[in-house]
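Table S2 (continued). Query chain:
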Amino acid sequence: MPQKLERSGGRLDGQTRLLLLVNALFACANALSGAFVNVYLWKAKQDFAMIGWFALSHQIVMATMFVVIGKWVKERNKMNSLRLGVALAAIFYLLVLLLGKSAAQWVVLLGGVQGMSSAFFWLAFNVVYFEVTDRDNRDRFNGWAGLLGSAVGMAAPWISGFLITRMPDTTGYRLIFSISLGVFVVGAFVSFFLKKRPVQQNYEWLYGIKQLRQQGNGWRSAYPALFAQGVREGVFGFLIGLMVYIATKNELQLGNYALITSAVSLVAFFLAGRLVKPGRRSIPMLAGALAMTLIILPFFWQVNYTTLIVFGIVVALFYPLYSIPITSTIFDMIGANTESAEHRVEYVVLRETALNMGRILGTIAFIAVVSFTKEPTHITTLMLILGAAPIFSWFFIRKHLAEGGR
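Corresponding output:
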């Protein structure tokens, strides 16, 4: 299918807004329970390595499934892939409810189911996102996606923390996991209002590898940039929330943390979505990467709720400056011409493979360190090393940022 010639002029149409709603519902369900799943597992077995294995199984299955389902998404109904991702997320929370306190013994299974959910949802979502946006409105879409994600991330975890602390034993956890299951069902229903997207033919299994082997191909620098992005995400995505709970021993405080940081993130995404433009992405991304790295340094002196709050606020403030440029630039590269647009599924698989390989490496490093030492300084050193990865992302992709993704 050739790339569409119509330009949005920066506007978001009905299908784009509907896709934002589906994304917001998915984010809401995950925000209600996401951080609390790790706390739930931690309370059953206080073991950093166990939490790491839960994340690693998620990442390995997700990386594998992205490659396996690429042909189906390109040549069949990609909307069914998106809906299956939502359904599998609901099944994940159903399994957690059924397993109860024994869930900590099944972290590899649970992580695998969650990884399958992420693969089916995000591969389809990213392809549809590419098809309903263009270079003119992609920064705006990403800004709104971050804005809505911050809004639900602000309210949902606080509500979860409040309910958990007001109910005996694990009753609160079971309630929020049930609510998440219900929100995923609603998300699946809303997704049926998205129009069926045209299918393509001839999925090329080795297309991504061919791009990486081709001299002068922009993906030879984009791939390591995405890999470095994944290195940080793989560990920080689960570790920070767990650190907040360990420091406070209170789920409501974890909810308060999410409320404060998401409020800052909401404003930051709102502003960044309007300020970051094609051709003016390099300096914002570098500023965001540097700020997200330097704010880790205070952890060498003390790790408590105050330093974690300061860390969360700074990251929430600067993360949009980092994430919007790299996300928009990569998808601009995918839509650079008719040929690349026709291989958008292969390119999305290539993008997600790079991110997941980085996440896997980061998580393996985390498991290795915590398996041999519980010394806070050693863990903080690892955080600084992994947390500096966004600087390398900027370094590798800086040329494409200056070109606006062309």
